[in-house]
Amino acid sequence: MNRVGDRYRDQTILTGHQHRIDDLDRFAALGIRRLRYPVLWERIAPNSPDEHDWSWSDERLARIAELGMDPIVGLTHHGSGPAYTSLVSDNFAPLLGQFADAVVRRYPHIEHWTPVNEPLTTARFSALYGHWYPHAADDRSFWLALLNQIDATRLSMQAIRAINPAAKLVQTEDLGRYYGTEPLRDVVDFYNHRRWISWDLLAGRVTPDHPLWEEIARVGFADRLHAIADDPCPPDLLGVNHYVTSERFVDHRLAEYDLSTPETGYHDLTAARVLDPAPAGLSGVLTEAWQRYRIPIAVTESHLGCTREEQMRWIWQSWHDCLALREKGVDVRALTAWALIGNVDWSSLLTREAGHYEPGPFDVRSGTPRPTAIADLLRALGHGGAELAAMADHPALASLGWWQQQRRLEHRPVSWDAPAPSVHTSSGRAARPILILGTGPLGRALSGACTLRDLPYEMVGQRAWPINSPQRMAELLDRHQPWAVINAVERCSIEEAERDPAGCLAAGRDDAAVPARLCSERGISYTFFSSDQLFGASQAAPYREDAPPSPVNAYGRGRREAERAVALACPDALVVRAGTLFSPYDQHNLAIEVEHSLRQRRRFRASSAITSPTYLPDLVCTVLDLIIDGERGTWHLAGDEALTEADFVRRVAMALGLDASLVVEGAGDEPGWRAPRPASAALASIRGQMLPPLADALTRHAAARKVEQYRQDEQVA
Question: Low-confidence residues of the chain, pLDDT below 50?
Answer without folding.
Answer: none
